[in-house]
Amino acid sequence: MGIKINRSIGWNLDFKKMKITQYIENGCDCYPWMETFVIWPRRSFYGTPLFWRKAYKRKVWAVWGTGFHMEPEVQYVTLEELLKYGNPQGELA
User: Fold this and answer.
1) Could you give the C-alpha distances from 32 to 58, 60, 61, 68, in angstroms and in order?
2) Verdict on whether the full-model pTM lies above 0.90
3) What is the C-alpha separation between 72 and 59, in angstroms, rounded?
């Protein structure tokens, strides 16, 4: 399958299953972990299903490849995951 016309670059990157290489936490329009209540089904950063429970969320920039394309992404974690794994951050590749 080729690139889809009339879709965003980020949608096409996700469609092609390109891997995110870096998360930028301190960029423009980012915010740190904030306590929230998850009403709609979501997945945590570590893959745990979240629904109708308290969790923490933050907004970061997800970078694909060499930094040419970035898109904002909201991440969710539970308090248990933050305590067990620490703060997910930085380089992924």
Assistant:
1) 5, 9, 12, 24
2) no
3) 7
Neighbours of 28 (CB within 10 A): 7
Report how far apart, in Å, the C-alpha atoms of 2 and of each of 13, 16, 19, 69, 80 are. 11, 9, 17, 19, 41
Q: 49 by DSSP, 3-state: which?
A: strand
Separation CA 70–CA 78 (nearest Å): 25
Q: How far apart are the first and last CA of the chain?
A: 26
What are the per-10-residue average pLDDT scores of the chain (93 residues)?
60 64 83 93 92 94 78 90 81 44
Q: Which residues contact 27 (CB under 8 A, 6 or more apart)?
A: 60, 61
Q: Based on C-alpha coordinates, what's the Rg of the chain?
A: 14
Q: Rounded CA gap, 69 and 65, in Å? A: 8
In angstroms, the CA 72 to CA 40 distance is 19
